[in-house]
Here is the input.
Amino acid sequence: MDRGPIQSAAKLYAVWAFSFFVIVLFRSPAFADMEVAKGKNYTLAITPYFRTDAIAIDNNNDLDSKVRDDRVQYIGFDYSLALDLNFKDHGPRYFFRLERNGLYDYDTPVIINNTLNTYLGKVHPYTDAELLPYIEEYWVDIPISADQPVRLRSGMFNYRVGHGIALNGNYENYGIDLYANTDYFDWHIYYCWPDIASKNLFWPYIKQQKPQGINYFHSKSYFWATDMLMKLWEGSSIQPYVGMLLDYSVGKRLNFFQTPVRRDSLGTVGISWDFTLGKFSGSLEWARNFGGANSTDQDFPDVEHRGWAAYADALYDAGKLTPYTRFIYASGNKLTTDMIANGDSLYTSGKNNAFSVYSPLNANLAGSIYPGIQTLPLVAMGNGYGMNYGVPRPTTFNDPGIIENLILVNAGFSYDFTDKCSATIEWWYLASAQNGIGLYNGVPKVISPELGHEVDIDITYSPNSNIMLELYSGIFFPGAAYREERTDRAGSLFTPFVRGDGKADTAYQVEISLAFIF
Here is the structure.
């Protein structure tokens, strides 16, 4: 008898029991200071983090409650340990962080009831060396001169602008960042080598990385960006930015277009504006792609990148109650019934109208260049700790988690019951910017743009600044797009098959998380 799973379960439940014991019996205001060394000119701090999750997910892959292959309950965790050596008087700073999480930065599953299924295949419990940490981030930050605020950071770290809709923002890459922070404006000049971090592994190999499309078919690419954050008045700023992803991955492309290319230049220009007027605050952001890819075959046209996206939010601080709303629009590629009737599996156009953070001419870069927006639906777009990649929908990238070919409308509010307990309730409406097209008995059929509605509820309780207990749940109500009758069970161009009998059941996700934060 294999006692490994039983021993793992016993250890995890022991963690839960100990955690609740700490919360109930020892409600201290905060844990001890995590400074481990302090001298006249430096401070060395350690930052541990541990979170354990109980997850339940149902129907997110097929929207069919009669099929149990995507009904799962599991226990997972995420932990990290960071060291931060900071020298005083604007001196150098050294940072190093180890972490263990799961595929695509979701939590690490260790005990699974039923099957943890994704549209890329099944995920098995992590065991043995797979539970050990890996290097997530490390860098050195040094001043360029003593009398100027200009600094240089080099190593493996993240770069983010605006609200995370453009220019990466999700993954750490090897790069350099020349920047300055002043009282009136901040600026950055950033350069990185995407995919190098996932190619040169300094951590245990995870057996399901290959079937999940991670760390394989490595690219030869380069990314640079620059931005300037101008501070207007208190709580208000404007940030223009521009970036370019250059890709020379000959023979290693996951290309969704028929056009064969050698060099692809995906540029993005945008501007983000945040403002505060008394108790009211809001944000606006706009970004547009430019550039293109040169065809290596005269029978196919060059590809021009011209997608765009817009983001807006508004919030009113009424004390304990804070209502807010968000809106997102991201363009997509337009399909025709002729494309589907011809059985096209690749896009024939010379124009990429899908808003792109990484290029559809090489989707292998999704593991290193990815948007960092956090304000998304839990179930439909997989925005939680649990390993749910989202509900499949019409999209060029075959990725429900990114804002492309999408219209999102959100309204919600948060309420602070006490200074330790708060709740958030959100409603989402989702629609496609461009209709998907499927087949019914061999005849092309235009799919409704209405994807559906979702309601998310998030309740957090923090007895002190170092412990947080969270209940995060969501239910997705499929729209007319998922109730179309279809017979193309393998799916069609940019339009995955979810269910074709004219019915669609709701999907839900529930997460109970306990985190120790320092």
Remarks:
- Helices lie at 4-25, 196-199, 337-341.
- The chain is about 5% helix and 45% strand.
